[in-house]
Amino acid sequence: MKRNSIYKCFFCISLTITALQGLTVSIASAQGIVLPGAGPINRSMGGASTAAPVDAAGALLWNPGSITALEGSQMLFGAEFLYTRTTLASSLGPFSGESDSHSGVPVLPTIALVHNDPDSYFSYGLGVFTIGGFGVNYETSTTNPLLTPQPPAGFGIGNAYSRLNLLQIAPTLGVKLTDALSVGFAPTITIGDLALAPALSASPDDANGDLSPSYPDAINGRWRYGLGFQLGLYLETESGWNYGVSFKSKQWFEEFEFLSADELGAARRVVAKPEYPMIVSLGTSFTGIEGWVWATDVRFVDYASAAVFGDEAKFAPDGSVPGLGWSSTLAVAAGVQRSFENGVSLRAGYDFGQSPISDTNTGFNVLSSALWNHAATCGASIPLSKALSMSMAYVHVFEKSNSGPIQSPAGAIPGSSVEISQTSDTLSMGFDVKF
Questions:
Q1: N or C: which end of the chain has fewer CB within 10 A?
Q2: pTM (two decimals)
Q3: What SS3 state is found at 413?
Q4: From CA 230, how far away is CA 160, in angstroms rounded?
Q5: The predicted structure's pLDDT at residue 410
Q6: What is the DSSP letter of 357?
Q7: Angstrom distance (rounded) from CA 251 to CA 273
Q8: For 199-233, what is each residue's pLDDT tens digit?
Q9: Can you give 214-267 as a three-state secondary structure string?
Q10: Whole-angstrom Cα distance, residue 420 to residue 100?
């Protein structure tokens, strides 16, 4: 490929990144906050790609060492339309109710570019992904105890809103060490947008002196930046069995700061400093039968060591709840692809992920609902020309519920309950250009 063509590709991506920040909206169908795939091809494979570099997006997201095995150079532009249904039900004494989250249909963008020169041991890539998040939007209720107004008008948290968007940029280098073994490295830049109302991680204040402290909001903030890196190894064998391993470091963010106000409207500063968790992926694939790819990934997501997410969920002496109490999890992704001589490819996949939220901590995670265990995926690619293909994928996340007691500074409230249920459907589409 000519050098000026490379410059044009990177220039187009750089112009698009700012626009993508505005498109990325709250995500709820992730493994915790981790989205298990990127782009329609990788998503239709269930996200399994640590040892199966079927497309640029999956290779860049899950194993930078595997980009050397892609056929030629390619670029993918994709978008996902996510429809999530989240329901919050609670009961306290004679009061009970159920509320739906008005989350809308967010759009999740993906851009992936890989340049492979057959005469070079080096491969270059750039990925721009939505890598995770969460979000809910509940209105104040007169019957759902947890969503009644904050004291003294009620005994809940009032209207509840949250938004966490995570967009990652990964410039990537892959190197062929031998004909069979490749290594890859990518520094990662993650851009995060967080909003919480009310901000339970902050201490409530009683500025108006009515002896009923209330929590402030944390919605007046800006996008914050985090840094990390990822490493990957990819091994191809003559038997058709391939293996991959990758390590994604934590994403260390700058402090999230919000310009809030106390009960009297006086200026108040609210801060939070969460971390995106470390992820280790192991994968294997089999490509020994022409036209077929079978792939399986196993991932360890270390929420327990990530600040805020892994911190203990409890009320501090000042009334704040600084941690969510998430546990580290294991996830499994499996996918199969069948390619035909006419260029059409069909795919199907499956995801299983442990929920990081225990039943006991359900009440602490009303704003950070991220529940699911099982998802089924399918998709196809259709060639539009010799160089251009269109791909689509569908992902269904089966309903998952968590339930536990309503928590207070004195502990769990006897006889109370809170239940969160969640399911989602995703339509992903995109165009893949090979050059």
A1: N
A2: 0.90
A3: coil
A4: 35
A5: 84
A6: -
A7: 11
A8: 999 999 999 998 889 999 999 999 999 999 999 99
A9: ECCCECCCCCEEEEEEEEEEEEECCCCEEEEEEEECCEEECCEEEEEECCCCCE
A10: 10
